[in-house]
Design brief:
Elements (H helix, E strand, L loop, with lengths): L1 H11 L15 E4 L8 H14 L2 E6 L5 H6 L5 H13 L5 E6 L33 H18 L3 E3 L5 H6 L4 H18 L5 E6 H4 L8 H11 L5 E6 L15 H8 L4 E6 L5 E5 L3 E5 L2 H17 L4 E4 L6 H6 L8 H4 L12 H10 L8
Parallel strand pairs: 1-2, 1-10, 2-3, 3-4, 4-5, 5-6, 6-7, 7-10
Antiparallel strand pairs: 8-9
Helix pairs in contact: 5-7, 11-14
Length: 368
């Protein structure tokens, strides 16, 4: 009895928290093939590292929709066909595929731009006058979804990227968007009943006081989508909150799990391992470090195990300092994600990569 009492007291005093890590994981680990510079070698490097450092790859399309071709059943521009073929040819055959695309534009304040011979082209008439709920928009987007799904044969489909930002930036467009959202979800579930279908939300905007988002609006957006997504995928960058890089918001996943009554995943995340400054009228300094990055990755993967996430994606594999200079990024906000790679700009692994690999070594036992 005395021994039993000692054990019981130990459990109550916190010994129960000192349990060994699980031998398996419920989630896949992935990256996008976003390269660190503009070169074929950089793209090949990125795919090679994904083959070794992940078991999921994200084919991410946030660069427009071929609206008229999708509506008419016409061939897509050769640039699109070549891009798709290149991506599919480099995708590791054993990896799970998360396919992401969206009807919302990059700024999350209107209909996605046109993708033809180039990305992010102006919408052609009559699409430049259509709302999200126009029958031709719905027909074109669902047809586009069918074609891109058929081509990539994904294991997960995400058909709307950071959709709650539309509510944040253009709440007047939300109801029309939801008409398209519901129609797309219902179409995809009929066509691919066994395929997990979802959208992503910016997790930080769902938490009251974390950002400048109107909380009531965000709760309405979340409520509206819950019946029309199999998984709620989180796009989550904690340093873009009131916490910045001063501290890691350690209760963030617990709060989101309590808020969202659906299976969860992380469709994109990252944390800067170096300092940078943005100009928002006045300079704002973010003091990222490798240690803070590792703390965020550790928190994320521990939460993914605890709450049985479907997958976790660190968007950037390797810091893209060279790409940032090549595209003249000194004058825009792409610096915000520049230093979030698990490899630095020289290709050297950071401490967070060791944490990532420790989880990667464990076999996956997905939640049914």
């Amino acid at each position: 009895m005395k021994r039993f009492t000692v054990i019981l007291l130990g459990l109550c005093s916190g010994w129960a928290l000192a349990v060994p890590p699980p031998d398996t994981r419920p989630f896949y680990l992935g990256f996008t093939p976003f390269p660190h510079e503009i070169s074929v070698e950089a793209v090949q490097y990125t795919y090679d590292r994904i083959a070794e450092d992940a078991d999921l790859i994200v084919q991410h399309f946030d660069n427009g929709v071929p609206w008229p071709e999708a509506l008419d059943g016409a061939p897509f521009a050769q640039a699109i066909q070549d891009d798709w073929a290149f991506r599919r040819g480099l995708t590791p055959t054993a990896h799970r595929v998360l396919l992401t695309f969206t009807p919302i534009n990059f700024l999350r304040d209107g209909l996605a731009a046109y993708r033809g011979d180039q990305e992010e082209m102006p919408l052609p008439p009559p699409f430049d006058s259509y709302g999200f709920d126009h029958p031709d928009v719905i027909a074109a987007f669902t047809a586009y979804a069918d074609r891109i799904i058929t081509y990539f044969e994904p294991d997960f489909v995400l058909f709307g990227i950071e959709v709650n930002l539309l509510m944040k930036h253009r709440p007047d467009l939300w109801d029309a968007y939801m008409v398209l959202h519901r129609a797309t979800y219902e179409h995809l579930k009929r066509a691919y009943p066994d395929l997990p279908v979802m959208v992503s939300v910016t997790g930080i905007d769902l938490l009251d006081g974390y950002t400048d988002a109107d909380h009531a609006d965000q709760m309405r957006a979340l409520s509206d989508i819950l019946d029309y997504t199999d998984i709620v995928a989180l796009s989550i960058y904690p340093y873009m909150t009131r916490y910045m890089t001063r501290e890691i918001p350690r209760s963030i996943y617990e709060m989101l799990a309590e808020l969202i009554d659906k299976p969860l995943a992380v469709s994109e995340t990252g944390y800067p391992a170096q300092s940078f400054t943005i100009d928002a009228g006045a300079p704002i300094q973010f003091d990222g470090t490798p240690e803070l990055q590792d703390a965020w990755i550790t928190l994320t993967l521990d939460a993914a195990a605890r709450y049985k996430f479907a997958f976790v994606v660190n968007f950037v594999l390797r810091d893209y300092d060279t790409l940032w200079q090549q595209i003249g990024g000194q004058n825009d906000l792409t610096i915000i994600w520049r230093d979030t790679g698990l490899y630095d700009e020289h290709g050297q692994p950071r401490p967070a990569l060791a944490t990532w690999r420790d989880w990667l070594e464990r076999p996956v036992t997905p939640v049914p």
